[in-house]
Amino acid sequence: MYEVSSALNYCHQRRIVHRDIKLENIMMRERGSINRGVIIIDFGLAGNLQRMKEYHLEGTIKYAPPELMSGSNLHADPAFDVWTLGVLMYRLVSGIYPFEG
C-alpha cells in the first residue's frame, strides 16, 4: 500500500488523476529484478487536472466514491483516487469489497 500510495502521490503532484485504481491495475515486478516493488498500470482513463472539466462515471463501480455515485461532485479530484486506495486496502485485507457496486 505504501508503494501504491507513493506512486499515486507522484501522479497527483504532477496534476494527474488515475481514475481507475483497482487491484487489477497494480502489478508486481518480477523476482530478482533490480527495481523491486509495484507498478500502477492502465492509465487509459487518467487525465490532467488542468484539462479535465468533469469526472464522468467511468472505471469500476465498486471502487467509485460516493460523491461520484450521487452526482454531487463530478469535478476531477485526486481525492477520488485516495478513496479507491481505501477500497483497495479493504479488499486486500478482507478479500471482499466494502460495498456492493
Task: Show the helix and strand layout.
Layout: H1 2-13, E1 16-17, E2 26-28, E3 38-40, E4 47-48, H2 66-70, H3 78-94
Largest sheet: number of strands, sense, barrel closure: 2 strands, antiparallel
- The count of domains is 1
Please bin the fraction of helical residues. 25-40%
CA-based shape: globular
Name of the CATH class:
Mainly Alpha
Give the N-terminus to C-terminus distance in angstroms: 22 Å
Essential attributes:
single chain, 101 residues, alpha+beta, Transferase(Phosphotransferase), domain 1, two-stranded antiparallel ribbon, two-stranded antiparallel sheet, 3 helices
Can you describe this structure?
The chain has helices spanning 2-13, 66-70, 78-94, and strands at 16-17, 26-28, 38-40, 47-48. The chain is of the alpha+beta class and 101 residues long. The model has no long low-confidence stretch (mean pLDDT 82). The two termini are 22 Å apart. The protein has one domain (2-94): Orthogonal Bundle (Transferase(Phosphotransferase), domain 1), CATH 1.10.510. Helix 1 runs antiparallel to helix 3 (78-94).
